[in-house]
Structures
1.
Amino acid sequence: MQRFIAIRFLQSLLALWVMSIIVFGLARLSGNPLEVMLPIEATKEDYARLEKYWGLDRPLHEQYFVFIKKALHGDFGDSLKYQGRSAMELVTERLPATLELAGFALLVSIVVALPIGVLAAAAKDGKWDTGAKIVALLGQSLPSFWLGIMLMWIFAVMLDWLPSSGRSGWKNLILPGITLGWFQVAVIMRLVRSSMLEVMDSEFVKLARVKGISESKVIWKHCLRNAGIAPLTYFAIIAGGLLTGSVVTETVFTWPGVGLLVVDAVRSRDFQVVQAVVILFAGIFILCNLLVDIMYAYLDPRIRYQ
Amino acid sequence: MARQIGEVILEVEDLHTYCFTRFGTVKAVDGVSFNLRQGEALAIVGESGSGKTMTALSLLQLQPRPAARIVKGSIRLEGEDLLQKTEEQMREIRGKRISMILQDPQTSLNPVFTVGNQLIEAIRNHHAGETGRSLVRRAIEGLKQVRVAAPERRVEDYPHQISGGMKQRVVGAIAISCEPKVIIADEPTTSLDVTIQAQYLRLLREIQEETNLALIFITHDFGIVAKMCDRVVVMYAGRHVESGPVRDIFNHPSHPYTQALLRSVPSMDEDVKRLYSIEGQPPALWDLPSGCRFAARCEYAQERCSSEYPPSFTVGLNGSTHSASCWRLREST
């Protein structure tokens, strides 16, 4: 088990390193930032001076070397747009808000989707199953900007139960969290339902029933643990998706997260900020995958003993 | 201890289990009756799809629900009508009084729990109040009973760490762990290789001798029937067509289907180029003929066979337990 974790950890570091090269390369492929920063009447000399100042005149591999060396110390350089502020500072300032929102959305989606998915599978074509199908349909077809505005209209404007925007307490988290998690509820629920149905057909479930075990134990113990693998794989993906895909929700609820910062940084070719954000997100993404892999091994002994 | 055949403990009468599907009603079990005595080994024989497994699952009321339902008949275990029991009461019977060994040992054990864990689950379910250590001891004893080597270590193993034959032994240990009165073995050896198969059959036989339990053996292998069983029920298209002591069935098969089945068993003494096979296909279970179901494939079929279902006729002398459902027998009696 320790060996398994150690190997997966080293693989994660390797993935992170490859990621840094890709990010570095892509940021440079997106165009020359000076074109955006300098006024249209700037001369060739202006360009040359600034290139030298930012180190953009040096060969790429040298630039990368400097970049990675600093990055290891948490320094991604200063923002090109917000003069005098470091990229890391801009990102870390907003990261807690995004993590909070994504974490809450993930929690909502699991807490809602898992039991509904299990119950839907346990009584196929029953009440829960029909309800689950409706939730799934709505979840996957309602765009989050519309859902966000609707929730805001009902719960903030009409009923005045919850605040509509900002980030001043736990109440602020509810509406954006649901908006963000709703789509995932649909996907996770369908995954749980279909893998449960598959597992419930297996011989060992029949044997569990032959043993005279209660139906709830058959479902929640014998089936769920086996059916957990497929949805678990997806958790790693949505964890990343929730972090990076919250731009729309953040906009609707004026949530001060990283999503908006990234869009802005990409638009103004703010290399340093883009790199900081992408590397950080990649890191979180890889960490989620590592956690999921460890959970696999916990769930399924066949993985543990390979 | 030698096996003693005692009282009738399980009586199945005119059992009907139908599957209600979108495409119609599939009459998976359509009139099956048999008795089982303590200490006896009864074979249920028939080709795939003849309703053997569905009969077995119906005894435990584990037919695939909600599609399949027992629509008619009675199942009495030691005089109690099982069809009157609630789901809760049935749970008390499963494993404890009637147990089952499933077809495929490779997939019968849950891959994410240890062997010991799965054994203990069965034991604990029927030995309320016992604590951890004594349960583990019982699990180890259970494995010993099915001749698993080093059972102390095996209880910690996961199913993927043990061989197919060993898995089937574990499944056997689970089945006998609560000392049931009846064990249904549903083709328990089909997926094992021949050597392991022989070992496993011997083991089942030994366990039966030790515990004097009644065994229902579902199979399509007449070799196993001859070796293992006292009586045979032959099923065709959801219905029993012939039943009787093994010796009688082998010596005087009376239903044309049984005769054909026995003729398709390859013999060691003869040199045959081509194995015998029964012409045609069994009827569709959602569209059964009103007469004898075998009529379309039967070489002796008469007019009456396709219009009226034959009742069960006693074969041989009065008092014989050998009977078959075929119109030809009426003519001979």
2.
Amino acid sequence: MATKARREARILFAAFRRSRPFWGGLWTIVAGAWIVKVMSFPLGIALNGGWSYSAGYVVGGSLIVFGVVAWLAPNYRMLAGVVAFLLAIAAFPVADLGGYLVGSLLGIVGSSMIIAWGDKPARLERGRRRKRTRAA
Amino acid sequence: MKHSRHRDGARASSAPTGTVRSLAHRNAAAARTTARRLWDQVGERSRRMHDEAAGSNHGSRRRGVFAAGVGFAALFTMWQLVAANVLAVNFTTSDNQFGLYSNYLDARYAAGFLSTTTRKNASSDSCTQNASGDSANSVTGGTATNAQCAVAELGINTAQLAGLCAIAHEKLPVIGNVSLMIRSGINNYGGNGSSGGQTIPDSYSGMTTASAGTSVTLASGNTLSVSGTGQLPGTTPGLINANQLFLNSNALSGYGNLISGLNLGQNAADVASYAGLTGGTPGSPGTGSWPAGQTAPTAGNFGLYANQLNVAGLSGSTYGLDLAGNINLPALSIQVVTGLKGQADCS
């Protein structure tokens, strides 16, 4: 029974993973969470302390949101990806050098994967195309 | 139902209970229907997801490499702009204790007072493990979470620094201790004929006071040219400029070089005004304040104010660095290295 449930969960997760930009969204969420962690201040200070204190929550939180959007609404992946891409770059000057660079780098990789996600040509077709290119 | 209630008195008296029961029954049925509908929707959705996953070959295509390349190029350009003193960045830290070192701090209009602050991770003996300030619970030889720490809040209106090195330690799972090192400024201040030099001197002992228009000899033996009033001239190579810089420190040491207008024991409530902090005008009481989020000092408490505070060989242990203004970080370098690094590793 438990094995069957585990198997079903695995199949469901595989279907979830294959039908949306899963890895891109994951890296984007990780990037956002890292930026929030690096610039985590007590909420009271973040709300009253101005942009220097709230930037991490705003930029990091937005990256998390757009990563989740890419997961839950894959049809809007291009919009989510482009906005996450811009946020990851903007994190560098505004949020402790983009979470000591790690957040910005992860965000750029993740959002690029979201932007580039879509139908891939079948392997056979790819092989044929390569052969054609070589022959030319 | 309604008709029978009128016919039978005994049943009519129990009618409210019956109505409640019937309502509960109806609600339960409605809830069951909604749950079934939701479950069906979930099932339908996952079936669709299965079909979608099975019927197509989705994934990140090669064009992603191009997008990532553009992103890395943009990041690299910004890095160069920061390092070239063109782009200013927002850099604010809190909670983690970190070491802050500089060859020379030239602070114009500085103010300070004593305060307490709550920190997520604290290992200093100026911290306690509870909010009552009980010294019996001071944190010694360990790390406490959400500790109350005694700190000196320092605010500097305009600061110029020759070399900056900040080191924070973090313990990561699997990897163990790692140090985050942020360095800026240049390695060689020259003046003594040596080709090399140290960004940060190991100690401030042995330094000499600058006389007008000459230079400060750093512990490394190198010299740093300063103006007659001990200020760093704008021509200093790799000069770091910051304004509205706030430090949350429990230990600072250095060689005080040409300090002027120092007032120790000034009313703590006034010092921010005198220093023109957060949008104020220096020397104009009533115009400056501590940044939002900072607990305001109590009137009559100990305060510190200095017109000019020049410190060579600055070494500090801080909990927070807040820039209400901007900072330029020429020759910026960020490194994450394994092990617990210290001041000597800055050079």
